[in-house]
Amino acid sequence: MDMCRFSGVQDHEYRKVVGALDFVKAQILEQQVDSKPAGAAQELTEKRRQLILDSMWFRAIDARYATIKPAHAKTCKWLLQRSEYRDWLDVAKISAHHGLLWIKGKPGSRKSTLLKFAVQSVRKTMRTATVICFFFNARGEELEKSTLGMYRSLLSQLLRAFPDIQDILDNFKSGQDAETFDWQIDSLQSLFAAAILRLGERHLICFIDALDESGEDQIRDLVVFLEALGRPIGASPANFRVCLSSRHYPHISIGNAIEMTLEGQEGHDQDIANFLSSELKAGSGKVFETIKNEILERASGVFLW
What we know:
5-stranded parallel beta sheet
């Protein structure tokens, strides 16, 4: 009799089980750290922890974020007033959406510009929050367009921001020798989940841009991981939120997450109109207005014409 209920390793239900097991593993890892007797010799020295952190870094780790031009002076501010965005930031409502917001839009709708604006806004206005981010880059090197690179970047930012939880690295098994680190997604997920469990009352806000610029199977795995990570967060005081952006994924969604579509957003359409009025140097009068209105109509929510 066939005792296997999954069609294969990419089966969505199988990935849910794997995500749940990763979270259990993270809880065990946290207990191992907490159960160390006071004064016991640490398995890793501060120097080795630093070696592990340094091994997560790669040359183009923030290249995509750095190359995105700042938002036009009269654009993007509407996002801060949207109910979806405000509910996502509202700690009192975290049990409803598990800290997850997914912004979707057409190619060329300036999702990356909007997300960079959000990153900068949170850093400026929420001084008690720590912000980490990763922007996928399909034109970049392999780690720029893979979730392996994303986890390495986010975990590095998280641990550098909170040095007191770097002791989760003490149970990390490295490669063939003490200075070889063969990073795998499973180990990065376990460490990331363990770090989230140690946040306590601290605020951590994570932005992940351009999911569609990575492989679809990788994104499915990430979504399952975030779903599993979000469940206990929704029932605990931990202040952890994730904002994703991507093109439309017809077959991938996150349960309980808030979803926001750029097309049809009044503020987004007004952004295009403001940008056009500022950049189109065609004078004034009826002819100018006719040209501007035709461009706006044909733009259909997209900045790149």
